[in-house]
Every structure is written in C-alpha cells, then in structure tokens.
C-alpha cells in the first residue's frame, strides 16, 4: 500500500525541518545575538581565525543549509497543492439523479446496520483421507479463487495435476501454431471492416492457462508423460473398479490424462466402450471421441478384447461395470494386465478390486485403510469436453461460424469524450498544455514511456489492463476486464481487485506525469487518445494506408514492417491475448501478400514475401507463394531448401505432418512442382476454426 510510505516520507521531512534548528538552538543558541561592536570587528580583522569566529561561521553555514531545505520543501508543497486544486476543479459534480441515488443508498445502509449480521462458519478443508467409506460424500469443489492444491491446479469444474495442466496449455499453444500454419492471407480493401478473426479457446482452457500463470513455478520441468506414468503406478495391475460420487469425475480425468499422454504417441492409448463414453461426456460424446486419434471406441467388453489383442497394447481401458458380461470384463482385465495396461471399471466389479472414489479425486483402497489416498484429476462434464475439444481433430464438415469478436482498432484516433457536466457553473476548459508526452508500447514488451523514460508499474494486472485497453480503443467495462484478466473466477470477488489495481495504476501515472490517461465514463474504461500515443494504433493506420496503395508497394510495406517490431505483448501468456495477437499478425501478413500480388516484378515480390515469412515462419500459404516465386525465377535449389527448412520448423514446433514425409526427401534434380498445392491442408492435424 502507498500510505505507509507516504507517512514515512512525511515523518522524515518533518524531522529534517525541526531537528537541525532544535539542535543548533540547544547547543549554540540563536544565530544572531546582535550587531557586532567596533572592538569586535577590529579584533576579527587582526586575528580572523579564532575558535569563536570558526564556530560562528559553521553555525551560519548550518542555518543557511536549513533555510535552503525549508525553501525547497515549501515550494514542493505549494506546487502539489496547486496541482491537486487544479485536478479537483475538473472533477465532475454528481448529477441530481446521482445525488438522489447516493442518498437513498446511504439511507439504506444506515437503516440496515442496526440489524445483527450473521455469517456461516468457514468449512474446514478436506483431509487427506477424504472420500473414505465412513465419511459423507462432499460436493464437487468449486473454488472461489485459483489456488495450488496438492501440487495441482484448482479451476472451475475440477482439479488437475500440474503436469496435466501444463500439457493442456501446451496443447492450446500447439493449436494456435496450427491455426497460424493453415491461415490463408486475405485481400485488403480500404475502409473495409476487419474479418480476419479467430475463434477463442474454450473457457476451461483459458482458466487453466490463467491458473498456471498465477501459480508458483514448479521446481523442475516434468517429463511429458509423468502424469500418466504416475497414474499407471497408482492403479492396481489387475485392474480396479471405482464406486462412489467421484467415479465419473475421476473417469473424465483419467480420459484426459491418457489422451494427453497419447498425444505424443500415435498408437491408440485408450480403449473405451461406447456406453462408458456416453456416461462420461454426455449423449453427444461420440463425434468428439471419433476425433481423438488416441482414443478407440469399442462396442462392448468383448469388442475391447479383440482391439487389445489386435493392436499395440493400449495403456488403459475404461468401461462401465454393467456394460457387458462379467466373464468378458475379467478376461479383458487379464489381457490388459499381460500387455502392461490398466483396466478401470467405472462401477461395481464383483470379481475384482473395488476402490472408493471421492469427488475431490481421492482414491481409497478399503483393504488397506492405512495407505495414503492418491489424488487423481477430476473434471465435470463441461470442463472435460472443453479440454478434449482442444486436442481433438476438426469436424469433417464445415465448421460453424465463429462467435462475434471485438474488431481491431480503427486507423482514426478516437475522439475524446465530452464531460457530462461542467463544474462550479463554469464552462469546461481543456487541460493546460504540457511538455510531457506519453507513449504506450504494446508491440513487444508492454511499456509505458513518459518523455521516453519507462514508468515502473508494480502490478502485473495493471500492465494487462493497459495492453487490453490498447487493443480495445473503444473501451471495456468492468465485466469485460475482470473476465479477461481473471478468467474462471467469480466476478463478485474480483470487482474490488479491479478497482484497487486501476486506482494504483492511475495514481502512479498521475504522480509521474499529471495526465489523466485512463478515462472512466458509464462504467467503461478507455485510454485517453489526447494524452497517450499507442504503437498498435499506428500499426493499424499503416495497414489501412497500405490497403489503398497501388503504386509504391515497397514503401507501403516498409511502413507496415517498421510499425510492427514484434508480436503483440511478445513473451506474455495472458489467456485473452492469443486471439488478438493472431488477428494483428494476420493483418500484417495480409498486407504482405496483397502487396506481393500487386507486384509485376518477381524480385520485388520475393522481397515482400520473405518479409512475411520472417514475421510468421509457420504459415504454409506464404511459403507456398515464396516457393512459387523462386520457381518462376529459376532457383529450384533455393525452393527445395526453403521447403525442407519449413518442414524442420514445423517438426521442431511439434506439429504433426505425416502426409508430408515424401516431400521432405525429394531430390533437387527432380522436376520441381510449381507450388506446394496446399499440401499442408492434406495433413490430418488441422486445427478447429
């Protein structure tokens, strides 16, 4: 908080003002006891360096230093008071309706304070043995805030081990890379509405990303399959049946953990019966299950036996207890155990081990009550479907239209708003001219510059707010800000946090510059375009200008390229950022491709396309255009090298391209194809859009 530091500063200043005079008066006395007499002057001329004269000189110097300090403090205080008075003159007075509403609210508050207020006693956290047969079943935990619990991440709808949550975040990042790979640049037209939009990830994914960002960093990076390996070690070799209120939530967690582990192994990892899949994910689960390459759907336990015996041994089998004949379930347990897998029966299993599943994810073995209860991933149905959707292959049919998204900033600078009411009966006057200039840089590392010097912003959420408002020049209300910066948390617990962050941010900017950078009108916050300059707005102005260019394409592209030094908030992993960052990048490569199409000179088109590839090295269409241009110029060897380097880039990023293997080994002596013919779109790993 700021007030302790301010109080300490005030005490130090008071001590400096009052301490030296008190010490000088106590030890030496007043600085002047009267005018010097003639004899004293003659004695000083004859012998100036005496103990008395040196003491008088030092005393006079000390008093002069104190007067200089007092003068400086006085001038500083008068300046601050003048600035505060000027700011208060511009604060709008409440309207009559606002005053009436405030009075009614105050009356209501004072009217209810006489009644006693009771609150429910806080519930103790679940113990490590939660979910044992002797304990009552608890409801699925719904945390009021993200937290680290038992080495995992609490999110709305469940609990994930940390390595599973990190695998979810990695799958989301891979999805964005695939979207970048498959995007085809669109033509640009001046003053046309922006259509280069991208669908957002499901809310459960953004909640996991935000929880990982808030959670303390792990002491070491786990191996990709640590979660699945630990899971296999927890379950009995001969299979286990699960009963209790946590059976289906744990079953969904098992499914997600196994699919994420199998995401790095092409062989089927999970075999699940159709009835079990419906119980876990709902009646519409079958289309989703068919789009999970790591999942094989069996009709019944007998069909699962044939699958296990006919393919590489799956790591896990999930089914319900009454899904088939008991002998088939027992046989399946033996086959799975012989192949090193695990059988999990979601329900009673009379002929095998049965453990109790608590809704918190705890598993309890009733035959060994003293053993520690392991905790597995637990998910509700909505969260499980959201997380699996990010991993699944796209629908074979045409995808549904994406939900509406926030448009990009216009090239024109937003106009400042007119105050609702002037103060003290005088017309509103614009603020006095200032020599300071604020520049908000969000392309690259977000930084607020005041006269070229970066302002230190203590709160990371405050930096997010600045970047979010820069990407939304029309402003954002309280709900939009809290949902973006703290996704997955109840708004009731975030409004105060938002107000505190905004107050601290606005106070820091006002103290450093005296300028009102963030406006607040009608519950909408926006950056004041009259006070702050934003590099993102300049970028889009350059893009709109390039869209109208038909002659000097090189200069237009250079203006766009100079205005785009780096990705939006490069290096940041804020959950709301990826869609806007991708839209911004797409606008830049749209400009690059459009200007290259306007070029009649292949050499100049080659330079433009190379600039686009430098900005997005994962985009297949730009590489296709570049290979085509190199082929037209007769440089077949460069075209082959570019293509092979692109394949290596995709492989290093973890993007699967099984259908491209034969292209990577083609000889440079063979007749080159005129283009890549959209070969990336034949890949079986195409993102959802």
What does this structure look like?
The chain is α/β, with parallel strands linked by helices and 689 residues long. The protein has four domains: 3-83, no CATH class; 225-391, Rossmann fold (3-Layer(aba) Sandwich), CATH 3.40.50; 435-597, Winged helix-like DNA-binding domain superfamily/Winged helix DNA-binding domain (Arc Repressor Mutant, subunit A, Orthogonal Bundle), CATH 1.10.10; 617-689. The protein contains 23 helices and 18 strands. The strands form four sheets. The chain has a seven-stranded mixed β-sheet with strand order 6-5-7-8-4-9-10, sandwiched between helices. A four-stranded antiparallel β-sheet has the order 1-2-3-11. Strand 16 (518-521) and strand 17 (524-527) form a beta hairpin. Helix 1 runs antiparallel to helix 3, helix 17 packs parallel to helix 19 and helix 18 runs antiparallel to helix 19. The longest helix is centred in the first third of the chain and has 39 residues, at 51-89. The protein is flat and about 125 Å long. It starts with a helix and ends in a 25-residue tail after the last helix.
